[in-house]
């Protein structure tokens, strides 16, 4: 059985995909489904959901289409989540590999830096970074990655430390490979699987941190975000709670979907091991 | 001699299609020492696991295993003792040796074991059992650990001892000591021994009868003298020929250029 | 007499206070096989890995082809590795899990820049044939092969750079006996054709006797005795030598004398 089929055979993976795929499709089709500016005023303000067929999820305080915002917001949430996780995994894998393979001094220095980052809560780090640099999409992504890379770095380092002692690394030295080539071509690809296993947790937390930053008004002001929508709805929480609840549900669905995919992948790996 | 164990047409398959063991027939008499020889993938360990009832639940098994001429299955521990290849893997790293043995004796007390821990350890050749009993596995050498593993297998006073590549991970000197120990123990207690190895010469030093396996089938069985002097199957002959002896002409001499 | 190919002087290594190797010295001539025998923990593999500069010696010299290898590092050491190659015991771990037969054999050709690039794939096929494998295995993943086939690929990998010395660290110990003879014959053929020297690490005297001209028996990090293999096996002078010879399994040794 291939790994993909093993993955798809788990209930977690199926449930996760059933939730995440529609979100991805909606996010990708946002410009087609809701062309034009989602921030444009299209109707009377505070129209509740399921009242008007043209505006199925109603409108917000200014009369903007909630569904259009939700779909465009999915773009931002997923983009930031994936980009931040990818950057964190890349930074972490490279730093972990250098720490694990580069000798005692490199290891000591890099691991102390990693610990320094780990002692600061990821959200505070992101908050501080964005308030200094300014809220753009790139700075939000980098701010989240800044707090997320230590975990993959530590996992990568531990893995590299064990692979480093394998005979095939000695064999690579014997056939004259250079240290950098050995670290990144021989060791890193084999150290990646446990590092990648962290990706679901990182994506999920990145989506939540992005939402929290946007909620505090530190998201990219030119983009619609779920966190920003919740913040918008906060002022009318008693009279029009749906404005906060709808993007809140979207957040829960996205995070849960990513988490379930991670669980599915872990289960698939376990079942592979028990067959072997 | 009365048969202790009779295996008839035993077939085992792990994946449901290719059999790891194919229609194996084997009889072990009471007190007999059988050397089961095979290279990697020969099915020798599958046969041993099947006898001991240690196959994974997903394995498909057909054929019959008769124990002491009844249809009962041999019981683990009291009928069969099993010694694995990796002694470190079969001992609990955070328990003292004495405590591990005591636990096994306690579990098997249903059979009213008259043995105690120092006696068991003395039996496997430790001159000072009390000292060994107080140690942890990591404080012992590989050979000592394997002796302890043999003591564990003997705790239930089994009628059949299975040693599955039990000496393969050990140095030749230690290996020879373990083989002597197994030989002495089976002679003393009258129990049978199934000695599984890839090393024909090693098995021939201790077995009453050799059984050669390949690709899940039993190819040939006979006394060591029969197998070594008159192998019938060409593979068995090649196995005999591949023994690298310390006497006779060597490859180096037969291949050396006369000019050198 | 010409200078030896490899000459090791007073090699020493300690791991955390215990002396794994203690002042080991020996010579190895071109085209000769020297076996290092001993129990596990005797230091034989540590010596092999120090000769390969995979473990840094604490003290001593490793003169190879007229230069002290311990003085070189970095690219100078990499350039010299071309002439001194190694085959490991465990074929599962001595190849990258992602390697194919082709990538494993192209590695030394590429790093040591042997032959013009377009000829290297052809050379790989030639190497496969030389070690008794089908060139059709070219694209196969290493881990699809049997243990014996993998060890042939390992020998081909060591041969690729046309070395003067190959260190065989228990290289045949885990191989099935019926295949072991073929591999011993292959190694002997290669030695005769190409004049390669072998440093043959093993614990099995039968195997050592089949291939090694001379044998050194190591005990607790020191050379207990060294001499022609035949005389060491016929008349070992030390206690450890006598024990090793006595413990080597012989075809029905005990069964003959009950």
UniProtKB/TrEMBL annotation, chain A:
CDD domains: TM_PBP2 (cd06261)
Keywords: Cell membrane, Membrane, Peptide transport, Protein transport, Transmembrane, Transmembrane helix, Transport
Family that this chain belongs to: Belongs to the binding-protein-dependent transport system permease family.
Subcellular location, principal: membrane
PANTHER family in alphabetical order: D,D-DIPEPTIDE TRANSPORT SYSTEM PERMEASE PROTEIN DDPC-RELATED, OLIGOPEPTIDE TRANSPORT SYSTEM PERMEASE PROTEIN APPC
Cross-referenced Pfam families: BPD_transp_1
Compartmental location: Cell membrane
Protein name per UniProt: ABC transporter permease
Organism: Mesorhizobium denitrificans
One Gene Ontology biological process: protein transport
This protein's record includes keyword Cell membrane: yes
Transmembrane segments: 15-34, 78-101, 122-149, 195-219, 240-262
Automatic annotation (TrEMBL), chain B:
UniProt-listed InterPro entries: AAA+_ATPase (IPR003593), ABC_Ni/Peptide_Import (IPR050388), ABC_transporter-like_ATP-bd (IPR003439), ABC_transporter-like_CS (IPR017871), P-loop_NTPase (IPR027417)
Main location per the UniProt record: membrane
GO MF term set: ATP binding; ATP hydrolysis activity
Limits of the ABC transporter domain: 5-240
GO cellular component, one term: plasma membrane
Bilayer topology: Peripheral membrane protein
Pfam families: ABC_tran (PF00005)
Entry's localization field: Cell inner membrane
Keyword Membrane: yes
Cited CDD domains: ABC_NikE_OppD_transporters
Key words of the record: ATP-binding, Cell inner membrane, Cell membrane, Membrane, Nucleotide-binding, Translocase, Transport
Family: Belongs to the ABC transporter superfamily.
Protein name per the record: ABC transporter ATP-binding protein
TrEMBL record, chain C:
Single GO biological process annotation from the record: transmembrane transport
Coiled coil: none
Keywords of this entry: ATP-binding, Nucleotide-binding, Transport
Record-linked InterPro entries: AAA+_ATPase, ABC_transp_ATP-bind, ABC_transporter-like_ATP-bd, ABC_transporter-like_CS, P-loop_NTPase
GO molecular function: ATP binding; ATP hydrolysis activity
Family membership: Belongs to the ABC transporter superfamily.
Stated name of the protein: ABC transporter ATP-binding protein
Originating organism: Mesorhizobium denitrificans
């Amino acid at each position: 059985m291939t790994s993909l089929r093993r993955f798809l055979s788990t209930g977690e993976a199926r449930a996760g995909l059933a939730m995440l795929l529609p979100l991805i499709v909606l996010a990708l089709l946002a410009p087609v489904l809701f062309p034009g500016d989602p921030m444009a005023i299209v109707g009377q303000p505070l129209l509740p959901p399921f009242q008007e067929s043209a505006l199925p999820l109603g409108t917000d305080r200014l009369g903007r289409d909630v569904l259009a915002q939700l779909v465009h917001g999915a773009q931002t949430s997923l983009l930031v989540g994936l980009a931040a996780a990818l950057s964190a995994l890349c930074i972490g894998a490279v730093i972990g590999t250098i720490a694990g393979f580069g000798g005692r001094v490199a290891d000591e220095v890099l691991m102390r830096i990693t610990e320094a980052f780990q002692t600061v809560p990821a959200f505070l780090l992101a908050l501080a970074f964005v308030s200094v640099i300014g809220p753009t999409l790139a700075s939000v992504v980098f701010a989240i990655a800044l707090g997320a890379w230590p975990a993959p770095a530590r996992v990568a380092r531990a893995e590299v430390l064990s692979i480093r002692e394998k005979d095939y690394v000695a064999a690579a030295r014997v056939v004259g490979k250079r240290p950098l080539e050995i670290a990144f071509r021989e060791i890193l690809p084999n150290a990646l699987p446990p590092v990648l296993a962290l990706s679901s947790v990182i994506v999920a937390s990145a989506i939540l941190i992005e939402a929290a930053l946007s909620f505090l008004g530190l998201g990219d002001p030119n983009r619609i975000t779920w966190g920003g929508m919740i913040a918008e709805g906060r002022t009318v929480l008693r009279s029009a709670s749906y404005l906060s609840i709808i993007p809140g549900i979207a957040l829960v669905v996205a995070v849960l979907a990513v988490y379930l995919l991670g669980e599915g992948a872990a289960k698939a790996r376990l079942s592979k091991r028990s067959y072997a | 001699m009365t048969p202790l164990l009779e295996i008839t047409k035993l077939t085992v398959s792990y994946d449901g299609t290719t059999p790891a063991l194919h229609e194996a027939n084997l009889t072990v008499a009471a007190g007999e020492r059988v050397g089961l020889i095979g290279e990697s993938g020969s099915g020798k360990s599958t046969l041993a696991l099947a006898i001991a009832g240690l196959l994974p639940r997903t394995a498909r098994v057909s054929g019959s295993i008769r124990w002491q001429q009844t249809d009962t299955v041999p019981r683990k521990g009291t009928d069969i003792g099993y010694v694995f290849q990796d002694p470190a893997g079969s001992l609990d790293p955070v328990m003292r040796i004495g405590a591990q043995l005591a636990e096994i004796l306690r579990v098997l007390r249903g059979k009213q074991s008259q043995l105690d821990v120092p006696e068991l350890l003395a039996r496997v050749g430790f001159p000072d059992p009390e000292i060994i009993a107080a140690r942890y596995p990591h404080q012992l050498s590989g050979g000592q650990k394997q002796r302890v593993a043999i003591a564990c297998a003997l705790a239930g006073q089994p009628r059949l001892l299975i040693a599955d590549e039990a000496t393969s991970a050990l140095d030749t000197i230690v290996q020879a000591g373990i083989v002597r120990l197994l030989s002495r123990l089976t002679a003393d207690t009258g129990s049978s021994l199934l000695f599984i190895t890839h090393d024909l010469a090693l098995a021939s030093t201790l077995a009453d009868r050799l059984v050669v396996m390949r690709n899940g089938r039993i190819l040939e069985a006979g006394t060591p003298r029969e197998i070594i002097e008159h192998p019938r199957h060409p593979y068995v002959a090649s196995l005999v020929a591949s023994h690298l002896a310390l006497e006779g002409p060597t490859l180096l001499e037969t291949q050396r250029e006369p000019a050198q | 007499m010409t200078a030896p190919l490899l000459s090791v002087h007073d090699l020493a290594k300690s791991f955390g206070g215990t002396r794994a190797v203690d002042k080991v010295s020996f010579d190895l001539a071109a085209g000769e096989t020297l076996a290092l025998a001993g129990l596990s923990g005797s230091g034989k593999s540590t010596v092999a890995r120090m000769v390969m500069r995979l473990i840094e010696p604490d003290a001593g010299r490793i003169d190879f082809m007229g230069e002290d290898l311990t003085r070189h590092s970095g690219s100078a050491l990499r350039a010299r590795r071309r002439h001194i190659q190694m085959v490991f015991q465990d074929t599962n771990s001595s190849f990258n899990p992602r390697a194919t037969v082709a990538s494993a054999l192209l590695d030394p050709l590429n790093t040591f820049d042997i032959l013009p690039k377009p000829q290297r794939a052809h050379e790989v096929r030639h190497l496969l044939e030389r070690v008794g494998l089908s060139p059709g295995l070219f694209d196969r993943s290493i881990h699809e092969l049997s243990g014996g086939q993998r060890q042939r690929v390992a020998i081909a990998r060591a041969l690729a750079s046309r070395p003067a010395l190959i260190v065989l660290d228990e290289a045949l110990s885990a191989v099935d006996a019926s295949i072991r003879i073929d591999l011993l014959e292959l190694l002997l053929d290669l030695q005769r054709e190409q004049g390669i020297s072998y440093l043959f690490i093993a614990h099995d005297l039968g195997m050592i006797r089949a291939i090694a001209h001379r044998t050194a028996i190591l005990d607790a990090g020191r050379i207990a005795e060294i001499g022609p293999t035949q005389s060491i096996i016929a008349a070992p002078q030390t206690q450890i030598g006598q024990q090793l010879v006595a413990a080597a399994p012989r075809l029905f040794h005990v069964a003959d004398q009950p």
